[in-house]
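User: I'm new to structure prediction. If I give you an amino acid sequence, what do you actually give back? Let's try with this one:
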Amino acid sequence: MSEVVPITLLPPRGFELLDQTRLPGEERTFKVATVEAACEAIASLRVRGAPLLGVAAAATMAVAAETTDASNASLEAAAALIGSVRPTAVDLGVRAAQALAVARSLAAVPDQRRTILWAFAARLLDERRAEDLAMGRLGASLFESGTNVLTHCNTGALATGGIGTALGVIRTAWAQGLVQHCYATETRPLLQGARLTMWELARLGLPATLLPDTAAASLIASGRVQAVITGADRIAANGDTANKIGTYGLAVLAARHRVPFYIAAPTSTFDATCPGAAAVPIEFRDEREVGGFGAERWSPEGSPAYNPAFDVTPAELISAFVTERTIIRPPYAESMGELLTAAH
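Assistant: Good question. You get back a string of structure tokens that encode the predicted 3D arrangement of the chain. For your 344 residues, that looks like this:
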């Protein structure tokens, strides 16, 4: 079976995305040829997943160079706009800033800047694929034969462009005969687990069961789950971790029932400038997402809703972090400092 391809670079004409809002019903791609179109795709979650957003950010900077004079001012404006669209995912702003730095390192020659920015985006995508494979191999070592694992949101190929972070670990452990079953939360309110993770698991042929978010406590308490693993959108210097809303609750449940709770994320997701939970910017989304899905409404029109896209799990609830370099274990003040020093 062919791998999922969520992004395809098409220099100098832009790039192509698999529209994730249409899955699983329709596999439809669309072309992005302007910065504005890229930002709309990011904001509407037609492209999503922290690592893949980093690649999309770099590709959008290349598009900015193609569609403007590629001057410092034009590229600075594009980088600022890109980084503001979804503030919690650290890769988005960081990769846009890195692309800007790459362009600034050259003389202000438009064609040179365009060429080097496309090359930068392509290199990031290649690195992402290699890092996912390394993360999968390392993370698989955490599981024993016969493990049933629970995951939240979507962390597969759709979220990275490679094999995925947490889902990449799961599929690698399954291929090695260690994981026997995957449970996936539906991930309200936009159902990334039900729509995207279950779609990826079905394509892989990996045995899986979907559950309502509200059934996670019952499932974990039943003893059917031996491990929980999710991805991350930003990991603070002390190990506090921002991820899809509902992750914190799963971590608390896992701790209560002595089930290991793991985070799988590349080193690019670690933010050395963020000291802890209080400094993590949390994205709040449209209240209408909670009261219905698409054109279907089940709450009275205008109903107020609390709709944070992310929550932050305290480091003390995380059993280990899986990266492409190593597995990080407590005490995080020491082990994470070593990783960040090595990475930079």
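You can read the tokens as a compact description of the fold. Here is one thing that stands out. Residues 110-140 form the longest helix (31 residues).
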